[in-house]
Amino acid sequence: MRHVYLHMPFCTGRCAYCGFVSGPPPERPGDYVDVLAREAAARGFALPLGPLESLYCGGGTPALLGVAGFRRLAASGFFTLAPGAEWTVELHPAAVTRDLVAALADLGVTRLSIGVQSFDEAALARCRRRHTVRQALEAIETARAAIADTGIDLIAGLPGVSAAAWTQTLRRAVALGLPHLSVYALSIEPESAWGRAGRAPPDPERLCDAVAEAAETLGAAGLARYETSNYARPGFACRHNLNTWRGGDYLGLGRGAASRLGRTRRAGDGTEETLAEEEDALERALTALRLAEGFDPEAAARRFPVLAPRLPRWRRLLAGFRAEGLLTAANAPTTRGHEVLDALARALL
Ligand code: SF4
Description:
It is a single chain. The radius of gyration is 20 Å and the shape is globular. The protein has 2 domains: 241 residues, TIM Barrel; 55 residues, no CATH class. The mean pLDDT is 96. The protein is an alpha/beta fold. Bound molecules: iron/sulfur cluster (SF4). Iron/sulfur cluster binds next to loops.
């Protein structure tokens, strides 16, 4: 096992758009480390896991584990890291403290990802984010002083954010000079507060414009769009997520964590299914369509011989997508290609 995701499913409140598995933190958040270890053992994984090439602590709000919880996690004999491994922790701006990020750096965390979502104060309040713009800016400065590889998440298409306000959010993000940014297009999840209230999804055209503007602004600032929703300076792409998009295996532990191990796909709710060889190969091969490195049909057919009979059809379809300006010469999505990725992948099935 080389790539592990640990889900910390607790938050101090509920963001209005959130459809993730999350609830109030336990009385002693550090005990959650034991829950994760028990889950690993119950699923037949010998501890320590590793040596890991990447470890990703996502949420929820992993920071609620606190300094003591992270020390316990690192000292528990739960995992070992390979030399040069990447260890990412997601942070909520209101939970960032000097002590916490210093402790994370000390324990070997190499990357921080802060959920900023917007630099528009009114948008943050509408989203029930439980932090202000100022807190976000302070959190970024505190975090990057301890761990230079600190990035942020933004959400495009938030209600009430004008085109001018979105431009302003992007400018502020760029001015920070961060090595990594994620820009997610808002979707209204049925189980979120907005979904239950029947809020309409963002206008598709305006959403595409907002994402395209992000790609242009961030690209001009040296942050290349290496995946549909992710931008980085050279050498700062998230290796954990790249493994997933390249169709690699990963183990997820925690209440809402998904896993992909061999042909077994496990959803966040714990349900498992074993895919047929061809279905598994197709899913793993076609996620490369999201990446700037592009989809190489010959390489996919070599890696998954079961897909080889599809090569002539793939070559024909890919040539058509390139001619339409949806893919580059390397079969990487153009800005328009990113907008219709699902349709491209469906056509290649
Ligand atoms: S969006 Fe993140 S911080 Fe907000 S409630 Fe959901 S998991 Fe928690």
